[in-house]
Every structure is written in C-alpha cells, then in structure tokens.
Specification:
single chain, alpha/beta, seven-stranded parallel β-sheet, two-stranded parallel sheet, 14 helices, NAD(P)-bd_dom_sf, Nucleoside-diphosphate-sugar epimerase, PRISE-like_Rossmann-fold
Length: 353
C-alpha cells in the first residue's frame, strides 16, 4: 500500500479526518485538502477553496495521486444553490486533477438524503425502507445526484474507477464540523449535568420509537479504503452504517448514564436543540474555564441544527448493507460503543470535562 497516494478532500471534516488518519495507519501517502488544513501526523496539508477554480488548480498543480476521496460539502440556503455550489466544487476538483496521470480511483461520500430528499423537501417523497442502493432516484434536485453525475462523467472521460458511499449520521471525532451528532450530544449532556437539567431527547416522537442506524466514521474510513482497493467493489454505490439497528428510546438512557444525567423522553411539542441551547454560549465559556477545557467557543464544537434534523425526522431510516456484505466488506461496529469511545476521547483531549 506504500505506493498508493491519496488526496482526501475535506480533510478536517468528520469523514475526511478519520479517513486520512486511517490511510496513514495503512502506509498510504496522504494529502489532506481543506480551506484551512490542520497539521496532522503523516498528512501533508493542501490549502484550497473548492469554490474557487483557480485556487484548486494552483493547489493541486503537479500533485500526482492514485486515489481521490471527496468528503466535502458546503450548506446553502436552497437545494438549487446546493446543486450549483457543491456540484461546482466537484467540477473544479476534477478539472484540477487533469494532470494526475496515475489517478485510478475516485470515491464520493454522500448520505441518506439520497433516499430522503434535500432538507427543504425532506421526506416528502422517499424511498422504501430499508434503503437499498439500487432504488431509483427521487424526483427533483438533489446535490448528491449532481455530484454523482459529475463523478461518473469524469470517470468515463479519464478511465478511472469510482465508488459512492452513502453514510447515515456519521459518529466520530472531529471538531467544528457541520454534521457532528456525537460531539453535539456530548456538549449537550455536559450542559445538562452542569445545570442540573434533565437530558431531554430533542427530536420527534417518531424518531424516539422507530428503528434507525448510524455510521461510525472509522467504519466509513475502512469501507472507503476497501472499495478503492477491491476490484469487485469498483464502480459501485454502497450504503455505509455500523451494521446494527436500534431505537433512540433504548440508546438515550445509556448516553445519559455515561454522563450521570437524567434521561427524559421527547416532550410534546418537541424541544429542538437550537431552541434549547440558544443562550448556551456564555455558559459553555464558564464550564470551559472551570474545567480547563481546550475550546471555550461552543459554536466550534456543536451543530445543533444538523442534530435537530437527524433526530427530528418523522420517518423511519434504516439502511441495508447486503450489497457490501456480498462483496466482502464485513466490518461491524456496535453503536453504543461508537458513542462511548468518542466520549472517552473527548474527555482525554479536554474537549469535555
């Protein structure tokens, strides 16, 4: 594997940082692209603004890689703007990689909105559960579909293989990430403990009781590497989840017990975190000072809005992994351990007390 050279696009995000670290551990040569890349052991930083074609072209000039992993997106006010901006980012990337003559594989990380639709029409039309990779696309605009089509066209034009990874609610270590439920819930539980408040489930009655699943960032990293290096996995789309299913009403008390707080079911009406935590910033500053934490700015840690979107669904979300299993990807991760191992690391690194 020492001859594989990877470009991880979005290397500071929850998918990208865990992938980059995994590939380094497997002796890949790894370049990490981000707007503001952070130093990391074995990861060579590449600074670029994906929305700026010239910025990406200059940053990647002369970089001869074998694999590119696209783990980046930028949220926009409407799905039409999501299509234009996020599609444009992938177009800029492949235009800048025209000189990478040894490029053999490109992977794209998307998610369950492939089956549920974009935020502005979320769940109004949706695929049947469990979600399977061969289900047809939903009607209307979806920036995941646009990114896929750009990937497919580039692969056909250049002759490299591709894979798509539809991860559902990624749980893992990353800071300042827009799609980071694990860290968000850790901060929320800490605030509840410090103020004596109950740990109220902030989502819908349906999510509280329905079956669901999530994806450990480390499972996603291993699937990305597997798909890049396994011929039978080439030119395929894959769901990516831990492999178990659960109900939040079962898991929520376990998370509460970890933090020593009282678990509470969702109230009627629901209590989204964006509403509950509107005035939490000054309180977090006090908690950080009291316990000597490394980050006192709560907005650098949490994504209230995205966790609300995940937990506020009024529909079932279960992803089928049969396709991956049949092709040989057998990784499995127990979901409670995904959360507890993340919380342990957050404590060890003084992110939470």
């Amino acid at each position: 594997m020492s001859q594989r050279k990877a470009l991880v696009v979005g290397a500071t995000g929850i998918a990208g940082i865990n992938l980059a670290q995994h590939l380094v551990s497997k002796n890949w040569e790894v370049y990490g692209l981000a707007r503001n890349p952070q130093p990391g052991t074995g990861i060579q930083p590449v600074a670029a603004d994906l929305t700026d074609k010239n910025s990406v072209k200059q940053a990647l000039a002369g970089l001869d890689i074998t694999d590119v992993f696209i783990c980046a997106w930028l949220r926009q006010p409407t799905e039409h703007e999501n299509v234009l901006v996020n599609g444009g980012m992938v177009e800029h990337l492949f235009a800048a990689l025209e000189g990478a003559k040894n490029l053999s594989h490109a992977a794209l990380v998307t998610g369950t909105k492939h089956y549920l639709g974009p935020f502005e029409s979320y769940g109004k039309t949706r695929a049947e559960t469990p979600f399977r990779e061969d289900q047809p696309r939903l009607p209307g605009e979806n920036f995941y579909y646009t990114q896929e089509d750009i990937l497919f066209a580039a692969a056909k034009r250049r002759g490299f293989t591709w894979s798509v990874h539809r991860a559902h609610t990624v749980i893992g270590y990353a800071l300042g990430n827009a799609m980071n439920m694990g860290v968000t819930l850790a901060v929320y539980a800490t605030l509840c403990r410090e103020t004596g408040r109950p740990f109220v489930f902030p989502g819908s009655q349906e999510q509280w009781g329905f079956l669901t699943d999530v994806c450990d960032a480390r499972v996603l990293a291993r699937q990305l590497e597997w798909a890049a290096t396994t011929p039978q996995a080439h030119n395929q789309a894959f769901n990516t989840v831990n492999g178990d299913i659960f109900r939040w009403r079962w898991l929520w008390p376990q998370l509460a017990a970890y933090f020593g707080v009282e678990a509470a079911p969702p109230p009627k009406p629901s209590a989204p975190l964006e509403e509950q935590m509107r005035d939490a910033a000054p309180l977090w500053e006090k908690i950080a000072a009291k316990h000597g934490l490394t980050e006192s700015r709560i907005d650098k840690l949490v994504s209230w809005w995205h966790t609300d979107a995940d937990l506020g669904r009024q529909i079932e979300c279960v992803n089928d992994m049969t396709k991956s299993r049949q092709l040989g990807f057998m990784e499995y991760q127990e979901t409670p351990a995904s959360f507890f191992q993340l919380f342990d690391r957050l404590k060890a690194e003084r992110i939470i007390p």
